[in-house]
Design a protein that fits this description.
mainly beta; 145 residues; 1 helix; Lipocalin; 8-stranded antiparallel barrel
Length: 145
């Protein structure tokens, strides 16, 4: 009867690993336009030296696959959006909330202060809130991996 015990242990490990991975804020997220409801891009969110970063991994909006940052100025002017860092150096705060000064929107060529957290009711949803002074807008991104 060793086989059922080993099988049970392996099953528990697999389920635990899957559950732990689904709880992480890090990974690939599909951005959803809060105005149209359409998917726009896949963002790879990762931890580097204790800070959060996000890079545009894929553009899924039809016709925009080769988009360039035409409204940008300086070094980003006319650079491809694909591969662009849009979340830069966010710090983790209480209750799993990440905050920082750099959420970049290449479509508007604007940088916002931001706050990012997992939806407490659904760990496959990421809440991304950008602030401009006291005005804010929140998008819900969905897990892509």
């Amino acid at each position: 009867m060793i086989f059922p015990t080993k099988f049970s242990l392996v099953l528990v490990l697999i389920l635990t690993t899957s559950f732990a991975n689904s709880q992480s804020i890090f990974g690939k997220w599909k951005t959803i336009d809060d105005r149209t409801g359409n998917p726009k891009a896949i963002i790879d969110i990762f931890n580097k030296d204790g800070l959060m970063y996000g890079v545009v991994e894929k553009i899924v909006e039809p016709g925009k696959e080769n988009a360039k940052c035409v409204k940008c100025e300086g070094d980003l002017k006319d650079k491809p959006v694909l591969g662009m860092t849009i979340i830069d150096g966010l710090e983790k705060h209480e209750d799993g909330v990440w905050k920082g000064k750099t959420l970049f929107d290449p479509e508007q060529a604007m940088t916002f202060r931001c706050k990012i957290w997992l939806n407490p009711d659904n760990s496959d949803e990421l809440k991304v809130r950008g602030y401009l002074a006291f005005i804010y807008r929140t998008q819900t991104w969905v897990r892509a991996d």
